[in-house]
Structures are given as C-alpha cells and as structure tokens.
Amino acid sequence: MYEILTNIFNSEIIAILIAAFLPLFLFILPFALFAVYLERKVSAFMQDRLGPMRTGPYGVLQTVADILKLIQKEDIINKDADKKLFNLAPVLVFAGSYAAFAAIPFTSIYIGTSADIGLFFILAISSLVVAGILMSGWASNNKYSLLGAMRSAAQIISYEIPTALVILSVVMITGTLSLNTMSEIQTAYFWNWTIFGGAEWGIQKILLIPFMIVAFVIFYISSLAEVNRTPFDIPEAESELVAGYHTEYSGMKFAIFFLAEYANMFAVSAIAASIFFGGYQSPFGYFGNLIGLEWLIPLEQLFWFTMKGLFFVFVQMWLRWTLPRLRVDQLMTVCWKYLIPYAFVNLIIIGLISLI
Amino acid sequence: MEKYHSANLSDQRIIDALIAQDPDITIEDALENEMIINMGPQHPATHGVLRLVARLDGETVMSVVPELGYLHRGYEKMAENMTYLEYIPHTDRLDYTSTMANNVAYVMAVEKLAGIEVPKRAQYIRMIVAELSRIAGHLVAVGTFALDVGAVTAFMWTFREREKIQNIFDRIAGARFTTSYTRIGGVASDLDSEAIKMIKEFLDQYKDAHEEFEKLLNTNRIFIDRLEGIGILPKEDAINLGITGPNLRGSGVEYDIRRAKPYLFYNEIDFNIPVYNEGDSLARYFVRVDELKESSKIVYQCLDKLPQGPTMANDAKKVLPKKEEIYTKMEELIHDFMLVNFGINPPVGDVYSAVENPKGELGFYIVSNGTGYPWKFKIRSPSFCNLQALPLICKNQMISDVVAIIGSIDPVMGEADK
Amino acid sequence: MAVKKRAKDLNILEKLYIPEIVKGMTLTLKNMFRPRVTMEYPEQKFEPPASYRGRPVLVQEQDAGERCVACGLCSRVCPALAIEVQANETDREKERFPEKFEINMLRCIFCGFCEEVCPEEAIVMSKDYELVYTNREDAIYGKDKLLVPVEQLQDRIDYLRNFK
Questions:
Q1: C-alpha distances in angstroms, B48 versus B39, B184, B406, B407?
Q2: How far apart are alpha carbons A168 and A162 in whole angstroms?
Q3: pTM, whole model, 2 decimals?
Q4: Assigned fold of C56-163
Q5: Is B216 in Cβ contact with A242 (below 8 Å)?
Q6: Same domain as B105, residue B55
Q7: Hey, where are the domains in chain C?
Q8: What is the ipTM of this complex?
C-alpha cells in the first residue's frame, strides 16, 4: 500500500499520513455510527418492538441525528471539577481505543504499521483507556463517577491477564507476534484457521482443537470485560450508578466516549477474528482466483474481515440483551479464580502439545 | 474535626440517624473514613421517588436511612371532603400497578360499614379483576426487578404481557389504567361475551410467555449468584415489623388474607399459596413467580363458576339505580339526586377492612359520623410498612445489592406516600 | 392449603455458566423472528371499543337542541370539579337549558361519573382521545366544542342501555 501511495504522491510523508488516517475516517467512524444503529435495532427486535423507524427509511439516519444533536449541546463542566483532567479524559480513551487499529490487518496489502510486535503493541496501547477512565471519574467531582471509575479500572486491569495468557498460547502455535503474519499463515480454507488447530496437518492439529476452543472462549469473555459490556458493565450500569464514569459529560465529549466504546468493541472483535478465525482470509477460496482477476482479492478480504468483525460485534450485543449483570466482587472472582487458572492450564497443555 | 453542619435541618437529622444506627461509631470517625452517598429521589432504580441516604465503607453499606414523602398527595385528608362515590377514582391512583385491586378493597370497606349485600355475580367479577390486576402488578414487579439486575429483555417481555391485560381492562371498564370499575354495591358494568373471550385467550397464551422469561432467568447462574443470600429478612423481624404480602411469604410465614380471613368467594376456589423459607431476595422473587401461576388458575376457576344475575345490589337507599330506570321512573330519579348530592349516609361507627393486594395487606379504616362524608379515613398501605425493613436488611451488603433489595421488596411510592 | 417449598438448587450443568447462557441466547434469538407488537401511530390508529371512556360530549338531538336540562348532577359528582353549568329558562318543552356549559379538559380525569349519573342521557363519553391545545384558555371546552349529533354516539348509547 505504501509503495502505491508513494508512487502516486512522490512523497513518503504524505503517503504515511494518508495511510494513517485512512482506516480511521473511512472505516471506523462509519462503523461506529452503524454499530449504534445496529445495537438499537437488534435490541428492539429481541424485545418485540421496532426500534428507530422515523428518521430516514427504517430509521437509518438515527445516529446522524443523534450526533448532530450532541454537537450542538452545551458543554457543562462542574464548578469544582478539575478542568484539565476533565477535558483530557475523553481524548485518552478515544486515543487508546483507536490506536489499536494501527496493528490490525484489514487486507493483505494494508496494515497501519508494519511493526513485527503487533499484538504486544495492541495490549500495551489499550491500557491507556484505564488512565482515561480513572481521570474522568476523579475529575468529575462526583461520588458515583469515582465509584464507577475505580470499578472499571480494577476490572480492565484484571482481565488483561487472561487475555495475555491466551494470546501467548496462540503465539506459541503460530510462532509470530505480528498479526499480519498470523493472518497470512491461516491461508485459504477454514480448516486452516487457528481455532481448528493451525495450518499444518498432523496429529498436533487434531489434539489442539478442544484446547483452542477453550482458549477462544476465555479470550471472548475477557474481551467482553475489557470493553465494559454486559455482563461486565458495572462501571456504566444504568440502574446502579446512574451512568458511572461518564455521568457528568454532556455534548460532544459524551459522544467521544460513546464512539470510543463501539470502536473498542470492533477492535477486540477484529483481534479475535484475526487470531482465531483467519483474519481477512476467506473460508472458501477467492472469487478473484476463480475468475482470474487479481485485484479483486484484497476487496474480498476486506469483505470477509468486516463480516467476521461484525458477527462478533453482533454476538456481543446479543449477550448484552440476554444476561443480567455481575456484581463487582463476582466479576473479580470469575477472573481470578476461574479464568486465570483455566488459562494457565490451557497454556501449559498447548505448550506440551506443540512440542510433539 | 468540626461537627458536620448542614444548612438543611432534615439533612442534619438524617445524618444523625445514619450514624446512630451503629452505636460504636463516632461522627468524626464516620465522616473521615466513610462516604455518605445520596441515592436521591431521582434515580433510575428506586422504583419511584424514594430517597435513600447510605453510609458506605468502600463498597459495603453500613447503614441506610430511607426518606419518604416525595409523592404525598393528601389522600386521607381529601377523603373527608368527598362522598364515598366520588372517592373511587382516587383509589386507582394508590398502587398504580394494580388498579382494580385497590378499587375492590375500598368498596368492600364501605360496604362493610354501610351493611350492603353484594350479589354473587358482582363478587365473582370482582375476584376475576382482582386476580388479573394481581398478575399485572406482579409482572411489573418481576420485570423491574430483572431490569435492576441488568436483564433488560425480561422487562420488555413482561410489559408486553401487561399490555394484553390492559386491553382487557379497556374492554371491561373503559380505561386501561385508571379503571374506577367497582361501585358501592357491585360493579359499574357487566362483562360482555367479548371480554370473557379476551380473558380466556389471554390466559391460554400466558403460560407460554411465563415460561419464556422463567427460562431466561430462573436457572441463570449469574442471576442466582446475584440474589442468593442477599437481603435476608428473618422470620421474627418480618412479623414484628408488620411486613405483609410476598415479602412475608418469602421469609417462611404462611399468612395470606385470602386463606386466613376469606373475603369474596375465595373459600370456594382451589389454589395454593407459595411459601419459601430462606428469606432472601431470590425467595421473594420465586414467591412472586409462583403467585403468577396461581392467579391464572384462580381466574380460570372463577370464569367457570361465574353465575348469572344482577351486578349491582338492590338496596335503593344506598346504591345507585340502573341507568334505564333513571330515565323513566320517578323514584329512581329522586334516589339518583339524593345519593349524588348527599351521599350514602352509613350508620355511625368505624370499620377496618383489609384485602390481599399484590404488594401486601391493603387496609382501609373508615370512621363515619352518619353523614355522606367520612369523618376519618386512614389507608394502611403495604409498601409503607414494607419499606421499614430496608434499614434492617441492607446492613453489610454492597451497594449493588441495595438496588436488588429494593427491587425485591417492590415498593410503589404512590402507595407508600399516599 | 399452603405448601412449603424449598428454593431449587442448581445441578452441575447449570453451575457452569455457559449452558444456561446459551439457552437464554437461543430464546432471545427466537424472539427476533417473531412479529413486533408496536403500533405505528399515526399511520395505524387505535380503534377503541364501545365501552371506551374518551372525551365527554353533549348529545345533540336531531332538531338542533341539546338534551341537557342543567340539573347540575354531573358537576356535583365530578371528582375533579371540571364541569361548570349555568341554567336558564327556555320556551321549549323541557323548560330548562344550560346557558353556559363548560368542561375544563385539563381537570377532567375521564372517569365517566358524569355520564353515569346523568338522568337525561345528555352527556356521554365519546371515543375521542386526540386532544391537543396550545394554551390554557383553549382547554376549557364550551358548548360549541362539546355538542355532537346523536347519530355519531349511537354505539355508546347502546352500550349504556345494555350493560350499565
């Protein structure tokens, strides 16, 4: 991708700038708008009602109307709030969520950075979100926000451990930290995906399948906790602490928190798809190969990537509207007493199997 | 550290009450290490305008002081200036989740005072609508309870069922919500065949809908972990505090007014009373869920046993005559004027009559001085008495549990504040 | 016959969170494919049955007169004190007619007591529920807004005669 852009613009700097901003504005922001609409429609259909129907045909312009409304609202800051931290917090949360997309491969020819340590970078930069949340809770000068922020910080930090352990076990199988290389390894058909044991045939592949499924379940549950979705949405539980750490935010800053949450959802879904389900590879082979058109293949890969990400986002929404909420100490129990021991045991067994 | 001063005298009293619940804490210690949080009257989870001031140590609640009165409308005083007939629409607005049951309770009290005998068909119709509104009230309770704990979809499903009951009420009484259906001496209008068909259709499909949200919640481990052992109300404390209704039956006491002092025709109907021993929020939830099933059984039996006959009593001096007779006959016209202008004039005396509302025991204490206006009117509302249990059962729970406990006690502020 | 029951304990499969969660999820998914219960107003309006208590209206006979004799019972029984009647003489057969008949729709609670005590079948509850005013003076309905010809109210009058 860089080579094409450098050839067009004859300058590396412009090429890098365009490539850096491209996914942000062309993909993630429209996706966040679409995800808000999807959530409202999915929740409405599960509850036997219709959802937004009036703004635009079948309500598709609802999110646009919401964003326009939020932009023109008055920006209220408490009298006793810490202004610098109050204004900085949404920026940090936004940056932490969006920066993770730099290392996720959308198609085979495009990736934001060509770092070889993609997964490590993602884990590190998503921890910025914790700092942003704590800042917003403290600077709001509100007991409810402080409670919500403390709970959220404890939750996100604890659930990073099972995530890291599962990623470690996958890295042992595939042998690389870069998401780009990982997606390239899981070529062509769906039985080459990591969740079915990886691309190499042999007894290793068959033995690995149940443990990879367990690893995927652990990863999905801890990613739900990373994004603050039900059943782990204590920090923003509407019926307990009004709205948790973003109670005091109004207008565009609230919109930033909101969009950052949906971007984060897509980020963890995309990582789950890339690690376990083949990233941008299609499960059935490519049309481009069938017809003979080479340039069709990256577009198809983009399509499959989006579909996989969307499916996992839909499952997250589905879980939200089905399950009740876990209490804070039960949340911590699930993490420290159940997920971490299972993840450790899984890691050891996968390590042993990979020695065969 | 100086003593806490508040500009508001009632806040000062609340803070003192909070601290006083724990005898070995001084006010300086309390205000230094702990947090006093106000779950104010406007809160998404407090089931109406209920204010709770809680003293927290981290996430654990040390003491809780509820403050009522934000919805006080002066019902007991207003009754002294209205005739007994004019007061019926006000009883709708007491426990507004189960309106017909309040109507039935009120007219039973007035009939006991005035000595009016109600025909059999009217009593069976009253039982049918009272049990239907019990289903409606418990659906709200279970739905909002699930909403407080986090499962939003169950809330929507229970309200969908409630809409069907409200359509039935629309057919019978003319209004979905503020029904004012019963009159002194009977009921306002008869059930037509379409209404009976609607009730049967609703009950036939209600079983499946009930199983749906039971399957979603009953064996869900997240739900059970959230509620088991939370807010345990011991048996003796429940009896001493005057708790009634599903809260009492969740603590192991077998007391239901429909069995202990039967009214209407409940002694001819075959139904069970669910009682659970544990006393925690989960037991109270199970009591309500089982009562939903029992109520549909009761309505089926009442529909089968519904006799033909008049729906208003024949007592000319105390009961409004039929409309057709008012148009044509002179006696009934005069009685119409007299009853509307001067009221029923029950004999001098007092009466207390209680029924089993979905929330507990709703009792009316009416003192009459012989005129058409009551001399003294007192409402014993179940939610007011049930809320007394809050400071006792919220000790040493976490703040997320307080919300679940309020949901399991199920107060309705229209009743608690009158 | 009260029955004491114990709360159920969970068996081993329910202790793992996952199977119950999956059951709940299939239930929610099944619900996605059922028909919706929302009624899209104003394209689909609610048609009330004959027993519906909408806005109270005065019945107007065929020869352009109201049936009301201004006896004052409706305003006496109204729990919200919404009706105001001023009587006067007339040369017609019934000798009394309401010179001023006002219902304050902001006070009316639509309980139907006025219709129930009226001795002349002059005030009935119609099926009208769409009431919009832009200021408080508009909400006090005088005789001009309250008179409705008797043909439009026939099913309510039939309901009254049969069921009350």
A1: 12, 31, 11, 11
A2: 10
A3: 0.88
A4: Alpha-Beta Plaits (3.30.70)
A5: no
A6: no
A7: 56-163
A8: 0.85
